Amino acid sequence: MKHLIAAVSLLALPLCAQQYKIAVAGLVHSHAWGHLPRMAKGEAARLVGIAEPNLELAAEARTLVGPEVPFFTDYRQMLEQAKPDIVWAFVENNRHLEIVQACAPRRIHVMFEKPLAASLRDALAIQRLAAQHGIQVMTNYQMAWWPANYAMKAQVEAGAIGKVSRLHAVVGHGGPGSSGVRNKYFFEWLTDPVRNGAGALFDFGCYGANLITWLMDGKRPVAVTAVTQRFQPDVYKQVEDEATILVEYPSAQGIIQASWNWPFDRKDMEIYGRSGQVFAGRGDGLRIRMPGQQEEASKAAPIPAPEDDFLNYRAAVVRKEIKPAGLSSLENNLIVTEILDAARRSAATGTRVVLQ
What is the model's pTM? Predict the structure, then answer.
């Protein structure tokens, strides 16, 4: 059958489940490259199209998905011809609202790579469109599928470390690369304060805000204070490469360190309670320390399906087998965008921003 890239494995889906059609809008977000080969297998949803006007990026993607997947230069044409059930967008942050405006009236569900939007205004407009047209809008984070974070939350919910007083997210790496087909266009917009929203503040601050909001059970903070700096002005000419965000709650503080200057990749989360501490590292690495005891390292248990994987998770959401919640949910990411928006204003004005 033309344009089918792989036969559907009956073992990959429940017998009663419909296999949904997925399409990709844009390739300028470099996270696309890690997801395309798996999408091409058609396990959770059938890949029916990729839209990207940049022919260099489209040619690179072709090497990952094979000749049977149709390519388009206009994503709106793809929506009309391929008629996907789900669109996964890898476009600039300030174009996320545009994607929802095209998809929502067609009842097409939308997924974004983090963050939800480049501004709070856009995020609220996305929320209104999703509610008006009855679609799901989700945001993907790499850390959202790591067992260690779920084990950390379980420790908090069980009261194992007492009342939470401090949350500390350390996120970032040595900075975005600018060479090669897959990186140069990503670098171009990621270092643009309009298309990205900021620099490291948005690129990695969103991870910390996402986890802290989730660990605080979706509570909105009362205030946000941020300091940003540019340590490599010759590389990042328009945006900051270093950001520290203080997120205030009535009885807790969240600190987010977002950086393009780490000597290695960091995506770590620490949470302190009155009677203990939990550290969640990459994947399933977990460390717990209680008063009077040595720190204990362990491996977190695997996350049960379909919550263990974004492709499976969103397919289950579209099939209405589960309700979107937690780290990828629209509710969480509206608060994330509110935190980032306030942090940007705080850094620009040098003031503490109180949320209304």
Answer: 0.92
